[in-house]
Write a structure and sequence with these properties.
The complex is a heterodimer of chains A (about 280) and B (about 375).
Chain A lengths: L7 H22 L4 H6 L1 H11 L14 E4 L5 H11 L39 H14 L6 E6 L6 H12 L5 E7 L8 H4 L5 H7 L3 E6 L3 H13 L5 E6 L22 H15 L3
Parallel strand pairs in A: 1-2, 2-3, 3-5, 4-5
Helix pairs in contact in A: 1-3, 1-4, 1-10, 3-4, 3-9, 5-6
Chain B lengths: L9 H6 L5 H4 L2 E3 H15 L3 E5 L9 H6 L4 E3 L4 H12 L4 E7 H7 L1 H9 L6 E5 L17 H6 L6 E2 L4 H13 L4 E4 L4 E3 L14 E4 L4 E5 L3 H13 L5 E5 L2 E3 L3 H11 L2 E8 L4 H12 L4 E6 L9 H7 L4 H14 L33
Parallel strand pairs in B: 2-3, 2-4, 4-5, 5-7, 6-7, 10-11, 10-13, 13-14
Antiparallel strand pairs in B: 1-8, 6-12, 9-11
Helix pairs in contact in B: 3-9, 5-7, 10-14, 11-12
The chains are: A alpha/beta (about 280), B alpha/beta (about 375).
Chain lengths: ~280, ~375
């Protein structure tokens, strides 16, 4: 079921390809969320190509690891990773947000092979992950549940309800990755509604916290693999990331949260990404 | 003479015209009937799990927790987390029953109920106690007078509001056997045991309880007994009333409604739910499109209720037999000649030992 683990360099290259997919998809769709897709790309790439126990030919495999992108608006990164991993034809990526597409504006588990949970309204995904992790324990299965949560999303109270419950049940089969890209739809997260000290908050809620640079593949892989081995406590990987990572004019600019690049912008973005990632 | 009643216990029939019905008839809050049935399900199906949000003692789902501790999960006072976690569990093949009060199930956690349960059509059963104004003493914050309207408006929802303990247990088993989300509306306060074990519970199939040709009353949950009382009192005045338990609000049993409309020519609906969007609305929507006839809705008006003993609260807010009788009277006056049978004589003013009081709306005041 698992393939030979990819090297860090291979993962970095792939993260570049997935970033290109993201730009092309959103440009073609004329709408979507590039900033948060690009910030989470290294995390999602590491999960799908190195860390998770999955079988793209059998997306419903009961023993598969589960992945939930709780910040569902960043689904271009999810769709690109699934396509690159072989869950469906890459040609489908061009149908994002179009009529009759398997790729909805926010993820629909009944339309997209490999999407384990329908998400989009923020503050749901971690709870769903708690349910899946509890189910694994009850059914005596050893699959793991991986959830990517946004930092803006952490303003939702339900995230903390879920955090509390994962600690109560000591869900060591559940790992959350906080994509700490510091921007949300309107403004900077910590201007709009500060979440700091966020590491202390998660620790206080009973989680092990592992702080990393979420755009450095070595650190991402190390943290994810450490989380897999950790017993008795859920893990929160606090991934410091850059919103729009890989595209100079998108990086750290809140406006690129939910805006599609025009063709000229897309061409420049693709050029930058290819130079940075794909020539490794 | 052949009885007009079907499935209604003879002992209950004998009490329908009695002022002491609620004191004398065996009764139980349907939240307890639900908990009994859930326990049975737990024995039968290892995939059934019970999720609580700090009301497991109130809903007696603590019995399930005691019997199956590994399959019981108390999320504390965090209904949103419970609902989305139930969705996550359902993706793995479990059959989660999420237990809470209706205000929280249908309002506080509605985003999760819509987006994480109904949109992906996950197999979660929502057990909502304190539905409608059945929690009399608890007051407005705990009276879910909108829950049925809200749940009915969600695409693909199945909404069941059983009338008595017997049919509630049947509904729980039917919900477990159904693949998809189900909302079970339960009462805080006791309702009389109405039915024998032959009651033919089937999701989406309304049940004819009393034959009658002058007017048909469609009722659900705790107002079914009020409809039966109204029918019995009206019979003494020569009005022949059909009573239907419309336990499944959605999908509505359109065939049964249209049959009642064609055969009686006048319809009254009775629900302990706000008048907007519930059973009355569902029936009215159907009739206005397919068979427009005189109709009257009995339900909560444009107001919040208040604390008080259950029977007094529902009487003040227009939900008891006398209000149904008044609605029947009004609808019969509007009924065109030749539809069904005509009233034998004018309806005398209903007598009641309960004080009448006028409800003053607390909302909708113009500024």
């Amino acid at each position: 079921m698992t393939q030979a683990p990819m090297t860090i360099d291979e993962l970095k290259r792939l993260a570049g390809i997935i970033r290109c997919d993201i730009i092309e998809m959103i440009c073609t769709a004329g709408a979507g969320h590039p900033g948060g897709s690009l910030s989470a790309t290294d995390i999602v790439t590491a999960l799908y190509f190195r860390v998770m126990r999955i079988d793209p030919k059998n997306p419903g495999w009961p023993d598969r690891d589960r992945f939930i992108l709780s910040k569902g608006h960043a689904c271009p990164v999810w769709y690109a990773a699934l396509a690159e991993r072989g869950y469906f034809d890459k040609a489908q990526l061009a149908t994002l947000r179009k009529m009759n597409s398997i790729l909805q504006g926010h993820p629909d588990m009944n339309k997209t092979p490999g999407v384990d949970m329908t998400v989009g309204s923020l503050g749901h995904g971690l709870s769903a992950g708690v349910g899946m992790a509890l189910s694994a324990r009850l059914k005596k299965k050893d699959y793991r549940v991986w959830v990517v949560v946004g930092d803006g999303e952490s303003q939702e109270g339900s995230i903390w309800e879920a955090a509390m419950s994962a600690a109560k049940w000591k869900l060591d089969n559940l790992t959350a990755v906080l994509d700490r890209n510091h921007l949300q739809n309107d403004f900077c997260v910590d201007d709009e509604m500060p979440i700091e000290p966020v590491a202390d908050k998660w620790r206080a809620f009973g989680w092990h916290v592992d702080a990393i640079d979420g755009n450095r593949m070595e650190q991402v892989v190390t943290a994810l693999e450490a989380a897999r081995a950790r017993k008795g406590i859920p893990t929160l990987i606090l991934a410091e990331t850059v919103k729009g990572k890989g595209v100079s004019f998108m990086e750290n600019v809140a406006d690129w949260h939910g805006k599609a690049p025009c063709q000229t912008e897309a061409d420049q973005a693709l050029d930058e990404i290819r130079r940075c990632y794909c020539e490794i | 003479m052949k009885s007009k009643y079907r499935y209604v216990l003879p002992g209950l029939q004998a009490l329908l015209a009695s002022k002491d019905l609620f004191a004398k008839a065996p009764s139980e809050p349907t939240r307890y009937s639900y908990a009994d049935a859930l326990l049975e399900l737990g024995e039968q199906n290892p995939d059934v799990v019970s999720l609580d949000a700090d009301v497991s003692k109130s809903m007696k789902t603590a019995m399930f927790a005691a019997r199956f501790p590994e399959r019981s999960f108390n999320f504390g006072i965090a209904e949103q987390n419970m609902m989305a976690a139930a969705a996550g569990m359902a993706t793995t093949g479990l059959i989660p029953f999420a237990n809470t009060y209706a205000v929280f199930a249908s309002m506080r956690a509605l985003d999760m109920v819509r987006n994480s349960i109904h949109y992906p059509r996950l197999n979660v059963k929502i057990a909502a106690s304190h539905s409608g104004i059945t929690p009399g003493p608890d007051g407005v914050t705990h009276q879910a007078q909108e829950d049925l309207s809200i749940m009915r408006s969600i695409a693909g929802s199945t909404v069941i509001a059983p009338a008595d303990p017997t049919s509630t247990k049947m509904a729980v088993h039917a919900a477990a056997a159904y693949d998809g989300p189900v909302y079970l509306s339960l009462t805080r306060d006791p309702v009389p045991v109405l039915y024998d074990q032959t009651f033919p519970f089937k999701i989406g199939k309304a049940v004819l309880l009393r034959e009658g040709g002058d007017v048909a009353i469609f009722a659900n949950r705790d107002l079914v007994v009020q409809a039966l009382i109204a029918a019995e009192l009206l019979a003494k005045r020569g009005i022949d009333v059909r009573v239907i338990d419309c336990h499944t609000l959605k999908p509505l049993d359109e065939g049964m409604v249209l049959k009642g409309a064609r055969e009686t020519g006048a319809i009254v609906t009775a629900e302990n739910n706000i008048i907007y969007g519930g059973l009355g609305s569902a029936v009215a929507e159907l009739l206005v499109e397919k068979y427009p006839i005189p109709m009257k809705r009995v339900g909560v008006g444009n107001t919040f209720a208040e604390s008080g003993p259950y029977l007094e609260v529902i009487d003040k807010y227009g939900l008891t037999a006398r209000h149904i009788i008044r609605a029947v009277s009004e609808v019969l006056k509007r009924k065109p000649a030749g539809k069904g049978t005509s009233p034998a004589k004018p309806i005398p003013k209903p007598k009641t030992n309960l004080k009448k009081s006028k409800v003053k709306p607390t909302v909708g005041k113009k500024r």
